[in-house]
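Weekly modeling sync, notes
Attendees: S.R. (lead), two postdocs, one rotation student

Agenda item 3: backlog of single-chain predictions. S.R. asked that every request posted to the team notebook include the full sequence so nobody has to chase files. The rotation student volunteered to paste the first one in as an example of the format we agreed on. Action items at the bottom.

Example entry:
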Amino acid sequence: MTAANSQSANNQSYFLKKRVELALYHAALGLGALVTLAPLWLLLINSFKSHTAIVDNPLALPSSWDFQFIINAAGQLDYVKSIGITFVITLVSVTLIVLISSMSAWIIVRSKSKLGGVVFMSFVAAMLIPFQAIMYPLIQFFDSLGLKNIGGLFIMYGGFGLSMSVFLYHGFVKGVPMGVEEAAFIDGCNIFQMFFMIVMPLLQSITVTVIIINAMWIWNDYLLPFLTIGNSENKTLVLALYFARILSGQYGNPWQLIFPAVLITIVPIVVVFLFLQRYIVAGISAGAIKA
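Predicted structure, as returned to the notebook:
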């Protein structure tokens, strides 16, 4: 009985310890979520309040959910035009990144040569070069080519997004069985048919991950569009927000416009992220394991 009682006490102590660890774990996660979501909550509730209400009590809920503040902010940003330009830049740039990086990673993996290894390490090394180190020579070079415009942005984003995307695809392509490609070759597929009809569908999860990561970066980017297109007629959402009179300081700090302007700028990409976030973890984890 003594041994049985001792074993029972040990089991109870073990399960109590596990419960405490689990409680602390969830408490830490809850605290992290609170810290992360608090700014978004403040942004949301203050987007429906007047300047006076925001200054008096920024933590209070709005007395009424008046969308007129958001409508006014959208007018200041020329929202429809700005979001259209941002969408086109993001779509074209991400398409270039996905096509070039996926094909590059596939060829590097299948070549199994020293040159392929050198090329892959070059892509990895390029991830360590900060944009600020090359931004002025890059902008001057594109300006000399007449590409200091939206077309140049497509190319620059496509180039800057390659390094990480090739790295992610490289690890995932290793998990694609060679037998599938050999069977397609025997059936008469050429190299392009083999890639787009056989290989690319198998890379669906990592492709979604690459799309989300690069789309979030391009959509929210400020520095490269500022250096490339600046205060031109065709601005991205972030540039429109920066150059709008509501942030110029000329009229003080019109919080009733600043909060809703920031909200409608980030909402589209946040919604996309919330719907597709599970693919990011799944794709990166799978690619890391296979690397």
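Discussion: group reviewed the output briefly. The first helix runs from residue 2 to 46.
Action items: rotation student to repeat for the remaining queue; S.R. to check formatting next week.
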